[in-house]
Write a structure and sequence with these properties.
Elements: E1 10-20, E2 30-36, E3 56-59, H1 60-70, E4 74-78, H2 88-97, E5 101-106, E6 120-125, H3 138-142, E7 149-154, H4 157-169, H5 172-175, E8 179-183, H6 190-200, E9 205-207, H7 211-215
Parallel strand pairs: 2-4, 4-5, 5-6, 6-7, 7-8, 8-9
Antiparallel strand pairs: 1-2, 1-3
């Protein structure tokens, strides 16, 4: 059976909640998380596999109202892979129109060009340790702006070397977007990664720990 990807007027919603942003340059800020169902990737370290299939259709108007009810400026559209759903694009634009600061976290295998230019792209570049690195779309990397963010989830030295090659090939440090390095939780020591970043010479590199895994270590959803 084909997976339900919603329509331009409805999304398939996995969960919607308010918490603090756990990653990136906005870490620690109150944020509304809108998690869309479905993803065509199967990363080895994925911690949101429950979003692959679970979800229910919600009209965009209802989602917009649910977000507004929290009274929080920052909104993250995530998944799964939000850009696989046709409703993600109009939802992102509508949230911008409503005065929200909007981020879309994408795995990088879907074209980001159609996104509203007001939206911040958080591009999760897949490294070899994910098993999905061949799915990266180079044109998404070439289109990055200083206002966007790039994330590399790294599990070992091979992933670190791959990330450096991607950064050099696409001159991402010159673009000026934050280069977020996230150690796979429980696999790569954060201290070792910190030493690597200090020695890398990258101007825009940042250690990117997942705050929610330290604040709510036992929680798997809604944080």
């Amino acid at each position: 059976m084909a997976r339900d990807l919603g329509t331009a007027d409805e999304i398939v919603l996995n969960e919607l909640y308010a918490s603090v942003q756990g990653e990136g340059t906005r870490a620690g800020r109150p944020c509304v998380f809108v998690r869309l169902t479905g993803c065509g990737l199967r990363c080895t370290w994925c911690d949101t596999a429950y979003a692959f299939e679970e979800g229910a259709r919600r009209p965009l108007a209802g989602v917009l109202q649910a977000v507004a009810d929290f009274g929080i400026e920052l909104v993250l559209l995530t998944g799964g892979e939000p850009l696989e759903q046709p409703g993600c694009l109009p939802l992102a634009s509508a949230l911008c129109d409503a005065g929200h600061e909007v981020l879309v976290e994408t795995g990088g295998h879907v074209d980001t060009a159609p996104l509203d230019p007001r939206v911040v792209r958080v591009l999760d570049v897949k490294c070899p340790g994910s098993g999905m690195h061949t799915r990266n779309l180079p044109r998404n990397l070439s289109a990055l702006r200083a206002s966007d963010e790039v994330k590399f989830v790294v599990s070992d030295e091979a992933d670190l070397s791959f990330a450096l090659d991607v950064i050099a090939e696409h001159e991402l440090d010159a673009v000026g977007c934050p280069l977020l390095f996230s150690p796979v939780h429980g696999e790569l020591d954060a201290a070792k990664l910190s030493e690597f970043l200090v020695a890398s010479g990258l101007k825009h590199a940042r250690l990117n720990l997942q705050l929610h895994k330290y604040i709510w270590p036992a929680a798997e959803r809604g944080v």
